[in-house]
Amino acid sequence: MREHVREISNFLANYFIEKGLDEDLAHFLNMLINIAIVFVLWYVIHYVTKSILLTAFQRFTNRTKTTFDDYLVQSNFPRYVSNVLPLLLLILTVPVIFVDYPDLLKIFETLVDIYVVVLMVLIARSLLRTTTNYLKRHESYRDKPLESYTQILMIVFWSIGFVYIFAELTNKSVLGFLISLGAASAIILFIFRDTILGFIASIQVSVNDIVRIGDWITFSKYGADGFVTEINLATVRVQNWDNTYTTIPTYNLIADSFHNWRGMQESPGRRIKRSLFIKQNSIRYINDEDLARFEEFDLIAPYIKERQQEINEYNKKKGINKKHLINGRHQTNLGVFRNYTLNYLKSHPEINQEMTMMVRHLAPTTQGIPLEVYCFSKDKRWEFYEGITADIFDHLIAAIPYFDLQLFESPSGDDIIKSITALKKDQI
């Protein structure tokens, strides 16, 4: 069989020799013509195969409801597979074309082997990308770092491919090449340090559920504040609130500290924690006239009556001298306002009543006494959360004068001018 094939391939050489052409030149021309014929055949087969496969895949994807085949087309799987048949042509014809030129045969066989390895890796990469894109559509996989796993597998595939290619180029066995490669392991570890660290970090991030795609994270060191859109082997991509993107090395999610707001997103409420600064000299005891006025406020009328009854009974029992308010127990305008604020939060329809809620004093400052509101809004969406917070504090700021309290505010230029003008009038 082999001799029969050789006679066919040397048909033109024999013809040229019969016509009186030099034997070496005849065989060389025969080889060139055979190369040209194989190249034309390879191009025609490649073009026809690619056209048929692309058309078939396109029609198939249009008729099916699944999207896996759509992702196969997007990842160029039909294009890569269309190279298989032309590759078989090369594998079969190269030994025949260069049968009289063993040195050239060895070179071209090496090139064909490299072509086979690269094509197999490209097909594997296409399948991996298709699988990754398909899994991302499912809810259970959307927050998983699939890109990291895909990149790891691709590194493995390319590494195996390069090992075979270098073994082929150096005429060494794969085992022998790996043994010689072990001597350079330190250099390899240095070169792939970031990749190795990223791989370890990706595993830890996934196993420990530190970050998912879609999580809102704040990483001050890198200026990141937004949603995680991609997690791969080397970096984590964050889309900030201003629609800019920040990339963070994956390893830094393990090595450094950052905020993940997933707990807030999954909880039944979003925290409101904000203070009003009350001027200390506006705080005072309240008298009977104030009590009568405060009892007209619906939110605190029951509290005023109950609290005042308790205080009166205490003062009477202790025989307190009522001449001075500092004696015994008395309500203050700030205490009444604090209770008013708490009752207002309890009556607010957008505040989660099942979560922590309080109104408390913080330590006095040079700006006054901070009266902190601590509660949780039902709606966690940013724009609605800010609206609820603003609504609460709009009401409280407007209500403060009703309790004869004043908010601290640094004097502005107009305040200074008015003070100077009033001082001049007094001097006149």
TrEMBL record:
The chain crosses the membrane at residues 80-98, 110-128, 149-167, 173-192. It is found in: Membrane. Its main location: membrane. InterPro entries: LSM_dom_sf, MscS_beta-dom_sf, MscS_channel_2nd, YbdG. Residues 194-262 form the Mechanosensitive ion channel MscS domain. It holds the Pfam family MS_channel_2nd. Keywords: Membrane, Transmembrane, Transmembrane helix. PANTHER family: MINICONDUCTANCE MECHANOSENSITIVE CHANNEL YBDG. This is Mechanosensitive ion channel family protein.
